[in-house]
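Suppose a colleague, Dr. K., hands you the sequence of a protein chain of 187 amino acids and asks what its three-dimensional shape might be. Before reaching for any lab equipment, you can write down a predicted structure in token form. Begin with the sequence itself:
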Amino acid sequence: MSINQLIEKFKKEGAIIVDNFKTETMGVRSNRPHPALIENIKVEIPIYNSIMPLKHLATIQVNLPNNLIVQVWDKNNVGACEKAIQLANLGVSTIIEGNQIRVILPPLSQERRDQIFQLIKKKSEDTKIELRLLRDEIIKEAKKMYEEKQLSEDDKYKIKDDLQKTIDEFNKIIEEIIEEKKKEIFE
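The predicted structure, expressed as tokens, is then:
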């Protein structure tokens, strides 16, 4: 494995970590409705004897100012979908209207907005820690390669610099995601 392969490995795995953070923050409630809030809720379907994410059973649309409309494809699953949304404990109310479920998001209090933002900040710190652990893993691989004479001493130090630059880029993306979510929560 070369120095470039190690750096590419880090970039690829790091991008997955950052994407997971972005997906998680999309699922965190803000002041406006977003399908990501409920799309991954697990729904128990007795007919099929299985558990599936809501997005595999229905179409989820935003109905402004504070509603999501869940159009369930099979009318036999409407009750199970509504039950799963209620059990997710998101502080929303639901109304069944034929084959669809109206999910009503109540307005957020200032205290709740602050709690949500603190949760996002914590998730961002966890993501940064995950990136640092990945970086340390790659540095260990580089050190091992150096000891086995597969890397020069210059390359051993170059990889540390390159990894730090990449970490800085990932951290910048994370901060942009936080700022975007902050605007959503507090507007």
